[in-house]
Amino acid sequence: MASSIPRPVAASLTTPVSVYGEDGSARDRTGARCSGPGLPENALEEVFAPFFRLERSRGRGFAVGHATAKVLPVKSKSVDAVLFGQVLIHVPPPIAPAIEEAVRVARRYVVLLEETDESAGPGSAATGNAHCFRHDLVGHVRRVAPQAKIHRLESNVHLCAI
């Protein structure tokens, strides 16, 4: 996927990660190592608290949970990117407030790792599952931020440059 992301975006989104097996192979128990800065010892317990953020990470990005999708607890233009990852499918209509909040908060990008259904239109649509909805997410981004440049990276992955 990284090869289809615009080069400046790819550079800002990637962190080297290596996968290893306990016996040196991928057959055994697998884990991952990251060369990022990591967490300080005093933050290891706090990191699981809702909305916890390390001071040095301020302004990087914000991943949205379905409980907070329509009202994000951060200031306008305070993060570089807002990420929706299989969250909005569970948010009932109207979905426009969630997209408006993401555009309000993001300085640079709204990332949609979500199914988007252009046939759903502005009103969204129900599915066979009472807890899932079809939304035209790309259409909502275009309505809220007409200046946005939208890159389709894969079938259900869109990078919206605000």
Briefly, what is this?
By secondary structure, the chain is an alpha/beta fold. It has helices at residues 7-13, 96-105, 137-144; strands at residues 17-21, 30-34, 61-64, 79-85, 106-113, 125-126, 133-134, 149-154, 157-161. It starts with 6 loop residues before the first helix and ends with a strand.
Can you describe what's shown?
This protein is α/β, with parallel strands linked by helices. It has a domain at 61-161. The chain has helices spanning 7-13, 96-105, 137-144, and strands at residues 17-21, 30-34, 61-64, 79-85, 106-113, 125-126, 133-134, 149-154, 157-161. Strands 3-4-5-9-8 form a 5-stranded mixed β-sheet. It is globular, with a radius of gyration of 18 Å. The chain starts with 6 loop residues before the first helix and ends with a strand.
SSE layout and pairings?
Blueprint: H1 7-13, E1 17-21, E2 30-34, E3 61-64, E4 79-85, H2 96-105, E5 106-113, E6 125-126, E7 133-134, H3 137-144, E8 149-154, E9 157-161
Parallel strand pairs: 3-4, 4-5
Antiparallel strand pairs: 1-2, 5-9, 6-7, 8-9
Helix pairs in contact: 2-3
The proportion of strand residues reads 25-35%
Largest sheet: 5 strands, mixed
Helical percent range? 10-25%
The first-to-last residue Cα distance is 21 Å
Order of helices and strands: HEEEEHEEEHEE
Mean pLDDT rating: 75
Q: Given the helix and strand composition, which structural class is it?
A: alpha/beta
Strand order of the largest sheet: 3-4-5-9-8
Uncertain residue ranges: 1-19, 26-30
Number of DSSP E strands:
9
What general outline do the C-alpha atoms trace?
A: globular
Radius of gyration: 18 Å
**Count of runs of 4 or more consecutive helical residues:** 3
